[in-house]
Amino acid sequence: MCDDHHDHHTHAHRPHSEPVVLELGGELGALVVYADAALLHDEIEISPAGEDARRSHKDVLERVLGARSVYAAVFDRLPAGTYTLWHDGLPGVRNVAVGAGAIAELEWPARRH
């Protein structure tokens, strides 16, 4: 028997050097959230503005670009609109605009200890 949940997290907990394939176009856009390494493997949640309970999430993963690493959560297939980003159940950034057929980028504040 295969433990898909375990396999997903084992796959995610490694540096990723392969390209990210985004589905966008028409009314769909994408958002790349760049984060500090302290957020590696944490979940960033996203919800449409004004619909705080309707959230989905992506993990912050290490992406290897040449000789350096960046840490990012990548959301694709987002209907054009305005979004709220969440971390640890709290809203972190509101009014994030994602355009149709476009890739929006955002720097996420580092976690404070």
How would you characterize this protein structure?
8% of the residues lie in helices and 50% in strands. With 113 residues, the chain is mostly beta strands. It has one domain: Immunoglobulin-like, CATH 2.60.40. Strand 6 and strand 7 (90-98) form a beta hairpin. The chain is globular, with a radius of gyration of 14 Å.
Summarize the SSE layout with pairings.
Elements: H1 4-12, E1 28-35, E2 43-48, E3 56-59, E4 61-65, E5 68-79, E6 81-87, E7 90-98, E8 103-107
Parallel strand pairs: 1-8
Antiparallel strand pairs: 1-5, 2-3, 2-6, 4-5, 6-7
Short description:
With 113 residues, the protein is mainly beta. Helices cover 8% and strands 50% of the residues. The chain has a single domain, classed as Immunoglobulin-like, CATH 2.60.40.
What is the name of the CATH class?
A: Mainly Beta
Number of helices: 1
Share in β-strands: over 45%
Structural class: mainly beta
Q: Report, as a whole number of angstroms, the end-to-end distance.
A: 40 Å
- Tell how many strands the DSSP assignment holds: 8
User: Residue-averaged pLDDT, rounded?
Assistant: 85
Which architecture does the CATH hierarchy give at level 2?
A: Sandwich
Q: What characteristic shape results from the CA principal axes?
A: globular
What count of structural domains? 1
